[in-house]
Amino acid sequence: MAGTARGEITRLLVRWSDGDTAALDAVVPLVYSELRRIAAQSMRGERADHTLQATALVHEAFLRLAQTSHVEVHDREHFYALMARTMRRVLVDHYREMVASRRGGGATHVALEHAAEARADQLADLLALDDALAQLERLDRRKARVIELRFFAGLDVQETARALSVSVPTIVSDTRVARAWLISWLDERSA
Known about the structure:
mainly alpha
């Protein structure tokens, strides 16, 4: 992305953080394709024939953010991380509702109109990963953020380092340690 576009995105995001709701409307066309990529990455492992789901996921995440009274965004990496986290929450909320409705919980559907009929093991995997990330966040918030930024937002090592204001070697180390911790935690739960 050209430096001018990055600068414009950052200016609009800062204006939105300062309460200018029109700035969010102006930034949407500038970031939409990247958000679709993030949504697709967040949905890795889903059935490939659900092409509209990534679009619905982006729209639902935008709706949730737009309804938030105050959001503080420093730059585009921070915004993409916020969107990735919001998309993860939308997916997890949706899957929790699917599980509840399968058990007769009477749950209502979220606004993902063409949601996948995910297999039970995919639901369990996503919910277990979300639980593991929540546990990791309680133990080490930065390492949990690194995983979100690298694997859910799709940021590279340098972008993640800038977003978290730490060095590249720290991100490399945190990624390695967090992945090992997550694998261990998930293995213990599945045994």
